[in-house]
């Protein structure tokens, strides 16, 4: 057999082999992409409800540490300003520790806003407490905390809730 005759048989076979290879490779790539998309969709069906529940808990945390809500819950008749201060700080820290795990479901920016709100409220309470005399009553401290909060340019709780809601809207798009 001559070389030219050998090429007549081998060349078409090589062309068919190359076409088959390319077709099969393209099919497998499409199937792999489809499986990835299916897996991502299945993950979203599980993760999205978890993330939304985490956002709910974060907003609930922020509302619970809002001085307007916190003072009503914590203050008791006959309590001194010093005792109220201590109870407020303990409650805020306990609430924060209880909700720390939610940070895995939110962006760093949202979690930073939550931490900043908590720290701002603790700082506000500490400043108000430092300005009270030893004989001050819890009611005096409560009034002063609420006054300071109303005089502040921005409410850290409201700002943080707005940031969290922005992220929720992005998730639901």
Molecular structure report:
The chain is mainly α and 173 residues long. The chain is 83% helix and 0% strand. It is built from 6 helices and no strands. The protein has helices at 3-65, 67-74, 81-99, 108-130, 138-151, 156-172. Helix 1 runs antiparallel to helix 3, helix 3 (81-99) crosses helix 5 (138-151) and helix 4 packs across helix 5 (138-151). It starts with a helix and ends with a helix.
Straight-line N-to-C gap: 68 Å
Question: How many beta-strand runs?
Answer: 0
- Low-confidence regions: none
Major beta sheet summary: none
Instruction: Classify the secondary structure makeup into a structural class.
Output: mainly alpha
Our count of helices gives 6
Measured as a percent range, the helix fraction is over 70%
Proportion of β residues? Answer: under 5%
Large-scale geometry: rod-shaped
Average of pLDDT? 91
Rg value: 31 Å
Taken in chain order, the helices and strands follow as: HHHHHH
């Amino acid at each position: 057999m001559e070389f030219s005759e050998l090429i007549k048989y081998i060349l078409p076979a090589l062309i068919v082999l190359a076409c088959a290879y390319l077709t099969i490779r393209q099919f497998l790539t499409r199937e792999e992409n489809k499986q990835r998309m299916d897996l991502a969709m299945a993950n979203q069906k599980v993760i999205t409800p978890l993330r939304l529940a985490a956002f709910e808990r974060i907003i609930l945390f922020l509302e619970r540490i809002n001085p307007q809500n916190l003072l009503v819950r914590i203050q008791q008749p006959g309590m001194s300003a010093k005792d109220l201060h201590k109870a407020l700080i303990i409650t805020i820290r306990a609430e924060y520790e209880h909700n720390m795990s939610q940070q895995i479901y939110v962006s760093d920016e949202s979690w930073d806003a939550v931490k900043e709100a908590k720290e701002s409220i603790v700082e506000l309470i500490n400043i108000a407490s430092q300005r009270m005399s030893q004989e001050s009553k819890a009611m005096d401290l409560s009034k002063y905390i609420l006054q300071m909060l109303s005089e502040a340019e921005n409410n850290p709780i409201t700002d943080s809730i707005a940031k969290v809601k922005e992220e929720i809207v992005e998730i639901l798009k």
